[in-house]
Design a protein that fits this description.
Protein name: TVP38/TMEM64 family membrane protein
Distance between the termini: 37 Å
Order of helices and strands: HHHHHHHHHHHH
Strand content: under 5%
Number of helices: 12
Number of strands: 0
Structural class: mainly alpha
Radius of gyration: 18 Å
Helix content: over 70%
Main location: membrane
Largest sheet: none
Subcellular location: Cell membrane
Domain VTT: 71-191
Pfam family, one: VTT_dom
Number of domains: 1
């Protein structure tokens, strides 16, 4: 007699969750389009869109500051797609997220080390040392796996990257690569909300499901997800 669901059933359940997640994203985008009022879009319409280099620079600076402060990076990507379209919005949003990541990492390493360690220790307790060890042993793989998931605490991982004392290059490179799929997804979502772009919404849902599936597979190898997946 089997003690539990087999691998086939587990895979089917995981696929089902990814499908639900993708459909939820598409339906959420359609709802935002129907409502016609999305938080942040009025500010983007006034100061960012159609402002040329000045608007792009302002978006980059504000987006980097928001990402460094721990605001959802998906929101930065959404507003980037809304303001500039899928391609330019993705590039500017990705750069803003990466700058915000670097700011948080170096701040934790050089300035706020004691504060960051105290806050993270209070939130993650005994798991903190284990996650730091995983990041130190596999900075690229563990970081990439965690960045690919749509859940988790982006700021916490940035601070841990600074506290772990790992080389900045693999951490930032893995962050950029891990940020990319969701940045594309939410830039497409922002573009689809602004224009009549049903195909952008559908493609965003598909890409999100694929990126989450890859992230989950990598997490089984990196063994860091259980400690940092909490929002």
């Amino acid at each position: 007699m089997s003690d539990g669901p087999g691998p086939g059933r587990e895979r089917l359940r995981a696929v089902g969750k990814l499908v639900v997640l993708a459909l939820g994203l598409v339906l959420g985008g359609l709802l935002l389009r129907a409502l016609g009022a999305v938080p942040g879009t009025e500010w983007v319409d006034r100061y960012i869109r159609d402002q040329g280099l000045l608007g792009e620079t302002l978006f980059l600076l504000v987006g980097a500051a928001a990402a460094a402060a721990g605001l959802p990076r998906q929101g930065v990507a959404f507003l980037g797609g809304y303001a500039f379209g899928a391609v330019i919005g993705t590039l500017l949003s990705l750069l803003a997220q990466l700058l915000g990541c670097a700011l948080a990492v170096f701040w934790a390493r050089l300035v706020g080390r004691a504060w960051a360690e105290r806050v993270l220790a209070g939130r993650y307790g005994r798991r903190l040392r284990a996650v730091r060890d995983v990041l130190a042993e596999s900075p690229f793989g563990a970081t990439l796996a965690l960045r690919l998931l749509p859940v988790g605490n982006n700021l916490a991982l940035n601070l841990l990257g600074g506290l772990a004392g790992i080389a900045p290059l693999p951490f930032l490179a893995a962050s950029a690569l891990g940020y990319l799929p969701q940045t594309v997804v939410f830039a497409l979502l922002g573009k689809g909300v602004r224009v009549d772009g049903a195909w952008q919404l559908a493609l965003a849902g598909l890409l999100l499901a694929v990126s989450v599936g890859i992230g989950l597979a990598l997490l089984r190898r990196a063994r860091a997800g259980r400690a940092l997946a909490a929002p």
